[in-house]
Amino acid sequence: MEYYKYLYLSEKLEKKKGRVVDRLERGKFQPGIHLVLLPRNERNQLEILNAAYLLQPDYPKAGLFVAGIADSYENALEIVEKISQEVYDNTGNMNIRSYILRKEQEG
Fold first, then answer.
1. Using DSSP, how many helices (H) and how many strands (E) does the chain show?
2. Digit-coded pLDDT (tens) for 36-80
3. DSSP 5
4. Using alpha carbons only, how large is the chain's radius of gyration in Å?
5. What is the 3-state secondary structure of 50-96?
6. Distance of alpha carbon 7 from alpha carbon 36, whole angstroms
7. How confident is residue 98, by pLDDT bands cut at 50, 70 and 90?
8. pLDDT at residue 5 greater than cutoff 70
9. d(CA 99, CA 91)
10. Residue 10 near residue 35 (C-beta atoms within 8 A)
């Protein structure tokens, strides 16, 4: 998995970012954790995935790009809304994928 360098976090997770990411990488169960991902399908903008899916042995983790992490599905929806608003405010369009990937490349 790859994590966006400007990773969006729900308020409750802001101080726990390192621990949450470490537990995701080690395949530990984290109830309620939801990931906001850039989907593999480039036609879609964002998807929300319960982190429990990553514990399945056959779930493909390679190539996942995590744009945000939330402590609940509702907070994941708020992150999607926040990202969407930021993209629109800065670009005037809703091409979320391009915006995030461009910002990731900026250094």
1. 3, 4
2. 999 988 888 999 999 999 999 888 878 899 999 999 999 999 999
3. E
4. 13
5. EHHHHHCCCCCCCCCEEEEEECCHHHHHHHHHHHHHHHHHHHCCCCH
6. 10
7. very high
8. yes
9. 8
10. no
Q: In what order do the strands lie in the sheet with 2-9?
A: 2-9, 65-70, 34-38, 47-50
3-state SS, residue 33: coil
Question: Are residues 28 and 90 in contact, defined by beta-carbon separation less than 8 angstroms?
Answer: no
Among 23, 24, 19, residue whose Cα is nearest residue 1:
24
Structure tokens at 13: 């997770």
Q: Average pLDDT over the chain, rounded to whole?
A: 94
pTM above 0.90, yes or no: yes
CA dist., res. 54 & res. 62, Å (int): 11
